[in-house]
Amino acid sequence: MNKKLISKIFHILVYIFAAIGFFLVVGYFAIRFGFTNQKGIIDMQREAFFGASNSAAVEQAASAPAYKGPWQNSEEWAVMNDAITRDQTVINRAAADSGVPGRIIVANLVAEQLRLFFTDREDYKKFFYPLKILGPQSQFSWGVMGMKEATAVEVENNLKNPLSPYYLGPAYEHLLDFKTTDIAGERFTRMTDQHDHYWSYLYAGLYIKEVEAQWAKAGFPIDNNPAVISTLYNIGFTHSTPNANPQVGGAAITLSDGTRSFGALAAEFYNSNLLPGFPQ
Fold it and tell me: What is the DSSP code string of 48-102?
């Protein structure tokens, strides 16, 4: 191999690694400054969610009879039903450890997975449907619950900060302790493990528990309102502002029978008779 060819290969490799580095840096700043946040119903309804408006466009907290429609008879739901049933034991373990009902974790899982299945149709057809598995995320949001790294870090920090409005007490402080010094790497492995979803469910459960604690301490308990809890799960800590008139929103999710918010879709599942292994 002559020197000219070696030099050419070397320069190609340099350009490839430079391009990879560029995209990683762009991805970091996109997440850091919120450019990857999914635009949806909550963006149009944010003032109403925080009690500044009574716009009729905002979906109210779901307390109506269980919805029965096409998505419950879809092939996507058939895949999810099988996959979630296989995960029943680990979901219930995470629910017990986090102190929230398993069904509220599953409600958010269902909304996140339906969003993923109907958005990434090609991946769904190639991988998730043949294998009957849940769809993981690993780019800007992690794991089957679609949680961002920054949110996971805040969940961890809230457990150990008695001054935080999200603090749950001493019994919860060590639930997310790390076993190695490579905290970022261990966190990523926890959240993206496709063979064991326990950590994804536990982080989700603890997020929900922390937000419930915040609202209860402010005098506005929401633990019996799955639609609002799911809205808050979707929009994040930053937008969790306790108020007397919480309403439902979240990312717009377009299914075969129309579009609704993340919070409303989660509540549709929660109020249904699907997956009786996770009772209300």
Answer: HHTTS---TTSBPP--SSPP--GGGGSHHHHHHHHHHHHTHHHHHHHHHHHTS-H
